[in-house]
Amino acid sequence: TRTHAGTGDVVCLPRGIPHGFHNLTDQPAAMLCLLTPGGGEQFFIEAGRAPGSGEAPKPDPDEIRRILATAARYKVEM
Fold first, then answer.
1. Per-residue pLDDT tens for 55-67?
2. Angle at 8 between CA 49 and CA 40, to 5 degrees
């Protein structure tokens, strides 16, 4: 199922549901994820990078390898 969410929309997913996020516009987009129960946020802390200003750079091969290795530890499938 595809859901098109816009500014201010809320999408709730039960645990274990495959999902993704894709910005269909040419404008920058932001998403706030709330995870309950807690603990899953550690994946983003370990796999991600500190936010900067402007457009996010494309990930390089080393970053992709780090993300995939971190995902495996948190049972996240990419």
1. 777 778 998 999 9
2. 40
